[in-house]
Design a protein that fits this description.
The chain is of the alpha/beta class. It has 14 helices and 15 strands. Bound molecules: adenosine-5'-diphosphate and magnesium ion. The site of adenosine-5'-diphosphate has 20 residues, from strand 12 and helix 12.
């Protein structure tokens, strides 16, 4: 995939109407509908402000939740319009529909420097189906001179009407959020500052096959931690007790070990493990070799020798890509390995990239978020990005 795509700064937006796809899929209080975390709205501000300051009329749009093509009042974007207006310090006009009469009238009347937010795109089945008629109707809102700006990284792995389809009708460029993801993750995949160290953890081997396969082609060192390490250990004949194990993936694990050898990629597996007598925050624990976990015990974190080896391996890295916690970081007693890796990343001079929903949450929870070069904002999208997949919402943008 070509990561070198045009962004808002590569086109003239002055006096133009811009259809801006945002990720306003915010968490809400179930009872009151109140927005419980406005991080995604704040993240969209730089692109919105740039467009408004440069004299564009912005028609913003997003999905919220899973209305499955039906108009669900609880999933209206009206509260987002309200919050966005507070953050911008200017009125956000809200359309009661997406491409209907209200949206058309308000879009037509929109002046440079003004912003309109459309109602939840997924109230229409055409959004997720990538219906060309729906995409065309969205494009028509900005008229023949309009521009499409894509800034919802969390949905670039989906070919929907507003994330990809609409690019058939309008010049398509990225906003600053997607631009940063492309520059940093794309840069690390296409032309990494070496050595490139990939740290892979999380729960299952099976959910990380694509990432392992892709990074095995690119990285100089691959570090394995988290629950997936026990499938590797069992494959090599180790005893893993009650640890997370995917027997169907043991053969694959062996093939990866062999492939790494053939390619001269250093593959680090955990030598020791913090094993617990239950999957619980207050479980009893002991440090044991990863291949000798007693019956009735399960590995919930990497052990101290492994932690030392892994933190040493990132110290002189040029680039580190991290996906998947080293242990069950949700339990403080088993967060030490993940925290030590986060700390090591915070100290290296390497470009440090964190991808994956839980990994990003772990780094934030442990207080290292502002020490990383980049924390990818899309869970599923960043995983598919690291898998090297062509993302429909990126492919559709104009090449530089
Ligand atoms: P990401 O969302 O960053 O891609 P994953 O979803 O693959 O990461 O994995 C995150 C989950 O893996 C966390 O909830 C964590 O508790 C779990 N995990 C990590 N290590 C273990 C382990 N040893 N046993 C069970 N679960 C684990
Ligand atoms: Mg996850």
């Amino acid at each position: 995939m070509n990561y070198n795509k045009k962004s808002v700064t590569d086109v003239d937006v002055t006096g133009k109407k811009v259809l801006l796809r945002c990720d306003f899929n915010v968490p809400q209080d179930k009872a009151t509908g109140a927005i419980t975390d406005d991080k995604r709205i704040r993240a969209a501000l730089p692109t919105i402000q740039y467009l408004l300051e440069h004299g564009a009329a912005v028609i913003a749009c997003s999905h919220l939740g899973k209305p499955k093509g039906e108009r669900k009042p609880a999933l209206t974007l009206a509260p987002v319009a309200q919050r966005l207006s507070e953050l911008l310090g200017q009125e956000v006009i809200f359309a009661k529909d997406m491409v209907g009469e209200d949206a058309q009238a308000k879009a037509a009347a929109l002046l440079p420097g003004q912003i309109l937010l459309l109602e939840n795109l997924r109230f229409d089945k055409g959004e997720e189906k990538n219906d060309p008629a729906y995409a065309k109707a969205l494009a028509d809102l900005v008229g023949p001179d309009g521009i499409y700006v894509s800034d919802a990284f969390g949905t670039v792995h989906r070919a929907h009407a507003s994330t990809a389809g609409v690019a058939a009708y309008l010049p398509a460029v990225s906003g600053f959020l997607i631009q940063k993801e492309l520059d940093i993750i794309g840069g690390a995949l296409a032309n990494p500052k070496r050595p490139l160290v990939a740290i892979l953890g999380g729960s299952k081997v099976s959910s990380k096959i694509g990432v392992i396969n892709n990074l095995l082609e690119l990285a100089d060192t691959i570090i394995i931690g988290g629950g997936m390490a026990y499938t590797f250990a069992a494959a090599q004949g180790g005893k893993v007790g009650d640890s997370l194990l995917e027997p169907d993936w043991e053969q694959y694990a062996l093939e990866m070990i062999q492939k790494a050898q053939e390619k001269g990629v250093k593959l680090l597996l955990p030598e020791d493990t913090v094993a617990a007598n239950a999957f619980a925050a207050d479980a009893e624990s002991q440090v044991v070799p990863t291949g000798a976990i007693p019956d009735g015990w399960q590995g919930l974190d990497i052990g101290p020798k492994t932690t030392a080896a892994y933190t040493a391996a990132v110290a002189d890295a040029g680039t580190v890509i991290w996906n998947g916690p080293m242990g069950v970081f949700e339990f403080p007693a088993f967060a030490k390995g993940t925290e030590a890796v986060a700390e090591a990343l915070s100290k290296t001079d390497a470009i440090t990239i964190v991808g994956g929903g839980d990994s990003a949450a772990a780094v934030e929870q442990l207080g290292y978020a502002d020490k990383m070069t980049h924390i990818s904002t899309g869970g599923g999208a960043s995983l598919e990005f690291m898998e090297g997949k062509a993302l429909p919402g990126v492919v559709c943008l104009l090449d530089r």
